[in-house]
Amino acid sequence: MRPMRRASLDLAFLAALTLLTNFVYFAYSNGDFFFPDSATYIEPARSMLAGRGFLRANGIFETFRTPGYPLFLMLFRSFTAVVVVQHLMNVALAIAIYLFARQRFSRGVAIAAGVLFALDTPTIHYANKVLTETLFTLGLFALLWLVLHPRSNMFAAGLLAGALVLVRPAAILYFVVIAIVFMRRRRIVVFVIASLILPLGWAARNKARTGVFAISDVAGINMLMHRAAPSLAIFDDYDFADALKDRQDELVADADSEIEGTLHIASAGELNPAQHAMWFGKIGRRIALQHPVGLATVLVRGVCVNLFDSDAEAMTMVSSVPPSLLEVVLDVWTHAITLLALFGTFLLWKRDRTLSLLFALTIAYFVLISAGSEAESRFRVPIVPVLIITAAIGADAIRRAAVPDSR
After folding, report:
1. How far apart are CA 162 and CA 167, in angstroms?
2. What is the mean pLDDT of the segment spanning 96-112?
């Protein structure tokens, strides 16, 4: 069979499989498209559609969320349409993953990577929610492909890297990863400069509106709630979730008291949300650094959750398989994929050090930056394409070792 004909059949198969897995989940979800965070994207999108600007429902300048995903939501008339397009994005990603892997590796690796992506539980589940994960994953994979091209437009790549920050602020320092991997490439300085244009512009907007030069309030709030609080709660002698909630309430009260005493104000609530978050960040950072063992323990826990959480609960809601059995199957599957990915990344180092370093640093960056007490399978979604490509490389190496080529 001609190579082009074979590739077309492969792509048709992967597209059909991804459509099947995504839209079967879509059908059985019964319109459950929302997550607690969804409203925080919907409100500023509606405000912009109404011509009021990027505001919260109460009219306050929105600084917790960045404008990338709300702008995306403005393109649609219904949330059903948003979710359908996100599932179609997964189909496009499956095709892109196959083409990327086929270009650099074997047909077997490319097909395996596409199949693994089509079956990934968190990827399917979060495409079914009004959340940033799918859009961000598509943009991140496009960025990886773009920077790996020997003749890539580094200015365009930098703008894309900056745009990703406005979709998910967690990407705020990802440009450093690209700069490290490609430090010897000409025009890497152009990439770095371009990657800062949009984030700095948004931070300047926030400074003008609130007096705080920051991309988002998320970093400050997370520092207190998901770094400092769990650094204390991790060693409490009762359930971690309960201890975390208690410590968060305690630290918020203490932080507000400190703010009021320092600024000589009656209530920390007098501050706008950006100013409040800035103080939370300062206080949270100090507390977390005062408890390095607790912080390190929380980060290790978060890394394990981000890498190994199967999100089995998402499937139990739409499956008739006994939940206990489904959880075991998905946990084993997720652990196997992650371990194969680590093995595949090691093997890739021997073949293509630039690609191996880029993949390894990308995985490490996105796993670590969300490795506080907020860690969950959701934060693995953006690196699933990288994980499944390296997992396919690892699986292919094991297959070849077990069944040597007889030729």
Report:
1. 9
2. 95
CB 63, CB 351: distance < 8 Å: no
Alpha carbon dihedral 364, 369, 373, 375, in 10-degree steps, equals -60
Q: Side chain identity at 397, as an amino acid letter?
A: A
State how far the alpha carbon of 347 is from the alpha carbons of 114, 355, 393, 395, 403, in Å.
19, 11, 8, 11, 18
Among 81, 180, 181, 72, which Cα is nearest to 136's? 72
Average pLDDT for the chain? 94
Cα-based distances in Å from 331 to 61, 293, 328, 349, 367: 42, 28, 5, 28, 18
| DSSP for 231-274, written as a single string | HHHTTSSS-HHHHHHHHHHHHHHHHHHHHHHHHT-S-GGGS-HH
Residues 6 or more apart in contact with residue 27 via CB below 8 angstroms: none
Distance of alpha carbon 113 from alpha carbon 65, whole angstroms: 33
Distance CA 132, CA 126 (A): 9
Report the phi/psi class of residue 53: left, alpha or beta, with left for phi > 0 and alpha for psi in -120 to 50: left
Two tokens, residue 227? 């770094």
The residue with tokens 């607790």 is 294
- CB-based burial of residue 78 (10 Å sphere; 0-12 exposed, 13-18 middle, 19+ buried)? exposed
Selection from 181, 212, 190, 200 nearest residue 357 by Cα: 181
pLDDT over 90 (residue 403): no
Question: What is the value of pTM for the model shown?
Answer: 0.94
Contacts of 352 (CB under 8 A, 6+ apart): 104
The secondary element (H helix, E strand) that includes residue 287 is helix 273-290
Q: Which of 324, 319, 330, 318 is nearest to 377 (CA)?
A: 330
